[in-house]
Amino acid sequence: MYVILVYDICKEGNGQKRWNRVFKLCKQNLVHIQKSVFEGEISDSDLFKLEGSIEKEIDKSTDSVIIFKSRNERWLDKNVIGLQQDDPFMI
Amino acid sequence: MYVILVYDICKEGNGQKRWNRVFKLCKQNLVHIQKSVFEGEISDSDLFKLEGSIEKEIDKSTDSVIIFKSRNERWLDKNVIGLQQDDPFMI
């Protein structure tokens, strides 16, 4: 399965810690393409585990994680305007 | 065509102005679902115009806009963990 994962973590309180942990979880499974955006091929079981881990990390009252799933990367085209994901400037 | 648009605009210098203008352009064409994330159905011609307008607004050396295009929304499933897009908390 091909997924696009975007998250918005509220930085108040221990938000930066939550942001870092969600970033780390995503980086272990997907490709980092923009500040809070990841994409990549992932198995159903790994995605299930990732979603479970993220669910434990975030504060559901302030944070948002959205995962788009496509059965096949071929059904998705991608257009990048500006910085490419491998630009060193990309954090 | 169904698209997911994510952007990361560098806030230095007149970055906030660029961010606001890109936000406005996207809001006129798509649904706002997360801080810098939009999705929605859009015609080829409207998408072409939106991409052109965004291209004029951003600083390509610091900003990044990624547009995922799917011929059909049916090929995309979506899972939201935490805040839903219509939560008033969502900016």
Automatic annotation (TrEMBL), chains A, B:
Transmembrane regions: none
The protein's Enzyme Commission number: 3.1.-.-
Keywords of the record: Antiviral defense, Endonuclease, Hydrolase, Magnesium, Metal-binding, Nuclease
InterPro entries, alphabetized: CRISPR_associated_Cas2, Virulence_VapD/CRISPR_Cas2
Domain of life: Bacteria
Pfam families (UniProt xref): CRISPR_Cas2 (PF09827)
One of the GO biological process terms: maintenance of CRISPR repeat elements
Cofactor: Mg(2+)
Binding site for Mg(2+): 8
Molecular function via GO: hydrolase activity; metal ion binding; RNA endonuclease activity
Assembly notes: Homodimer, forms a heterotetramer with a Cas1 homodimer.
NCBIfam families: cas2
PANTHER family: CRISPR-ASSOCIATED ENDORIBONUCLEASE CAS2
Protein function: CRISPR (clustered regularly interspaced short palindromic repeat), is an adaptive immune system that provides protection against mobile genetic elements (viruses, transposable elements and conjugative plasmids). CRISPR clusters contain sequences complementary to antecedent mobile elements and target invading nucleic acids. CRISPR clusters are transcribed and processed into CRISPR RNA (crRNA). Functions as a ssRNA-specific endoribonuclease. Involved in the integration of spacer DNA into the CRISPR cassette.
Family: Belongs to the CRISPR-associated endoribonuclease Cas2 protein family.
Protein name from the UniProt record: CRISPR-associated endoribonuclease Cas2
UniProt organism field: Lachnoanaerobaculum gingivalis
Lineage of producing organism: Bacteria, Bacillati, Bacillota, Clostridia, Lachnospirales
